[in-house]
Write the structure tokens for this entry.
Amino acid sequence: MSGVGDVRNIGGYHAHVYFDAVTLEQDQALCESAAGFFDVEVQR
């Protein structure tokens, strides 16, 4: 695949989670799961 590098060379990343009042609890659970699974700090 052209333009795709070796993922072992990734030095950093970030993600955004967008939510509203209807999805707040689900999104908080997603962030907590991601923090534990990927061993990352979730900022709000």
